[in-house]
Amino acid sequence: MNIQTVFKLRNTPAVLAAGLLLGLLATNSARAAVQVFACEPEWAALAVEVGGEGVEVISATNALQDPHYIQARPSLIAGVRKADLLVCSGSGLEDGWLPLLLRKGNNPKLQPGQPGNLVASQYVNRLEIPAVLDRAQGDMHAQGNPHIQTDPRNITLVARVLAERLQQIDPANAEAYGARLAAFEEKWRAAIAGWEERAAPLRGKRVVLHHRSWVYMDNWLGLEEAAMLESKPGLPPSAAHLNELLQQLQAAPAALIIRTPYNDPQPSEWLTKQTGIANVALPFTVGGTSDATDLYTLFDTTIRLLLDKTGAANGQ
Amino acid sequence: MNRAIFWPGALPAVLLATLPVHAQTDQDLDAIRAELTALKAQYETRIQLLEQRLSAAEQQLADEQQAPATEAGANYAAAPAPGPATLPASVPVPAPANSYASAGNEFNPAMGIILNGAYRAYEHNPEDYAIPGFPLGGETGLPDRGFSIGESEFVFTANVDDWFFSRVTAAIEQEDGDFNTSIEEAFLDTLSLPANTTLRFGRFYSSVGYLNDKHVHSWDFADQALPYSAFMGTQYGDDGIQLRWLAPTDLYVELGAELFRGASYPAAGDAHNGRGTQTVFGKIGGDVGISNSWTAGLSWFNADARDRDSGDEDDPLAFDGTTEILIADLVWKWAPNGNIRDRSLVFQTEYLWRNENGDYLLPTPDTPVPIDADTSGWYAQLIYQWQPGWRAGVRVDGLSLDDPGPQFTGSQLEALGDDPLRYTLMFDYSHSEFSRIRLQFERDETGLQNNNQLTLQYIMSLGAHGAHEF
Asked: pLDDT in tens for each of the 470 residues of chain B?
């Protein structure tokens, strides 16, 4: 090809490329041992618990974002590129963006099947695996409900796999990861016992959920799911469905209406106004409320809000 | 555990015992169904509870066995070479969810179908559509009036193995009574190249610019932006190879280069032994706070054309030469807290400069006439989504003419009238991520007579549907 033709538009592409290259090589700095890319804040927090100072963690989403609907943004592609370990809920939760990030991130360490690809929900007992798949039923997760972090016992199971992966990726610090895991498990087990004791009055309470985000928590604490604000998973609550719910709740009341911090508060507040049943935005993940700053305070806050809002704390 | 075994066993028995006796009226059937559902729910809950008690007991037991033996955590850390087989005894390695006999179809590619139909109404006959000064090629031009299912796309994706990912998009379209099946895309991406690189090869849309590699179903309007229609034959796809590299920076910086066969508009004739098109592109992008994100790019595209047919059949123009295009693009997205599904505002703009240098073979005087013309095109659009599913958008796009000289008077290359301009307004509603219905009004001032156009369009996605790029 003719050189003059190539450089006709005043050498722009070549100059651009050369300038970028030089700038980049200069800024590439040393990194901490293990770079963790967590899809959700709870796994970022867990990576800090288990990995300690040996890991540098970024979370793809924050507690105010709906992890179902995230865009494969340039910043996330850059995050995937530099990561050594990916920790995500899986079960279809990140289907709308993670596969694209993995393809655009040019990082073979994170591809499925590699130690750097940890799909948390594969290591817990999943609930709600549908028998029939049909999109007329809404946005379904073929591999079961992905919101596993609302049961702290699942956190224990994922912590173990996480420690094992960190040991594989960073064998030099294997012992430290083992020690941190043991310390975490001990503290976590005691914490779970405490939460279960406090939450005992909640057993059998009927709750209304905005989305099927809480089935693991309900299963853990023995809460009974009375209804969903979404007529079908993933579809915003419609006025018609809310009116049906209103009649249903007038016939058989519930103790509380629960949503995540990213759910639209209007439908639950409307129902509260109509029925008098309290509603609450539980933190759902680390950072979901101002006091849910780590995994411990996440569940502390969750239990406290549940007890307060249902009135169960006063023996009602 | 006895109970857990008893319940599933009891179900068929209940069925058998009750059905023949009571299956007489609909009411009875309903009652039985309700009973069965209740039974099922009950037994599932019981099994779950039992499983959890069991797993809790196992955990506790294993923990107790481990704890006294060693100092905290030491025995875990000292575990031999890791891998699934060396998980500590207490880690419940999940059993495969289902064990089914092989039917040979477990590894079928993910399959999706995209239906993209429309009703169109135009003020003037679409067959007279032309942009003076810009001979059109590729799939450019207005679709027919009236109802049309347009182009149906069949998309297959799968990992070939641990090295390659593949996507094949086949399109079926009916044109003038004939069915056309075409392979729009059939490419492979590497999955495990070192140094943050990916190689793509096969047939694919060039990654230059922002809109060029976006599929028709993900466009924000029912038609392509004017500069892409005029310069790229709607979008440039060809057989070739692409190398992309991500810079080791916290900012997203991607550089890429492509080499294509040079068979489709604006290239033609497989120049340079089938390496007729070359491109280089760079993209950067990032976030500003949690609510804003952006991307910008600069691309260079060079296509050699050998005996390229352009223009309509009545007035053919053959071109020999090179088409060089420089594209600058910018996209800015705002969504409160990054929840793009709830509410968002997206601004998108691109500018394309084109130089066409070579010879046109005009119908008369039937000798090659040299041309060296600089034209440009641009568009800017704003899409606002005010609540989940509901969007409105406005777009303005235009081209700037360059008079190629008196020797082209009377041909399609003659610059007539004002610079082409177009104004578009659209509204669409997506009931779910998989369906979209759109209404679009267009004021087209690109031709010699202004054309008002209306499009009512649906885009439906069946089956597996890959994520859309930013």
From this structure: 344 444 444 444 444 444 444 444 566 667 667 777 777 767 776 777 777 777 766 666 655 544 433 333 333 333 333 333 333 434 444 444 444 555 677 778 889 999 999 999 999 888 888 888 888 876 778 888 999 998 899 999 999 988 999 999 999 987 777 888 999 999 999 998 999 999 999 999 999 999 999 999 999 999 999 999 999 999 999 999 999 999 999 999 999 999 999 999 899 888 888 899 999 999 999 999 999 999 999 999 999 999 888 756 666 788 999 999 999 999 999 999 999 888 999 999 999 999 999 998 887 667 888 999 999 999 999 999 998 899 999 999 999 988 888 888 878 888 887 889 999 999 999 988 899 999 999 999 988 888 999 999 999 999 888 778 88
Amino acid at A119: V
Query: What number of other Cβ atoms are within 10 A of residue A216's Cβ?
Result: 23
Find the helix packing angle between A41-51 and A152-169, rounded to 10°. Answer: 60
Residue of B nearest to A12 (CA): B300
Mutate to test the interface with B, among A61, A73, A154, A210 (most CBs of B within 10 A): A73
What domain range is B55 assigned to?
A: 2-68
A12 falls within a domain: no
Contact B73 A111 (CB under 8 A): no
Distance CA B171, CA A138 (A): 28
Residues of A within 8 A of B189 (CB-CB) are 103
Strand-pair partners of B111 = B156
Tally the domains of chain A: 2
CA distances from B119 to B144, B146, B215, B453 (A): 9, 5, 20, 11
Which residues in chain A have their CB less than 8 angstroms from residue B52's CB? 125, 153, 219
Is A310 found in the same domain as A215? Answer: yes
Instruction: Find out whether A229 and A267 touch, Cβ atoms under 8 Å.
Output: yes
Residue A294 lies inside a defined structural domain of this protein: yes
Burial grade of B454 (CB within 10 A; 0-12, 13-18, 19 or more): middle
What would the two tokens of residue B239 be?
């057989």
Q: Is B78 on the interface with A (CB under 8 A)?
A: yes
Residue B193: closest C-alpha in chain A = A108
CB contact under 8 A, A75 and B79: no
- B302 to chain A: nearest residue by CA? A6
In B, minimum Cα distance to A120 occurs at: B94
For an interface test with B, give the residue of A104, A132, A189 to mutate (most B CBs within 10 A): A104
Say if residue A179 is in the same domain as residue A237: no
- The question of ipTM being above 0.85 is answered as no
Q: Can you give the residue range of the structural domain that contains A146?
A: 34-195
Interface of B with A in 311-330 (CB under 8 A): 322, 324, 326
Residues A208 and A79 in one domain: no
If asked whether residues B61 and B132 sit together in one domain, one would say no
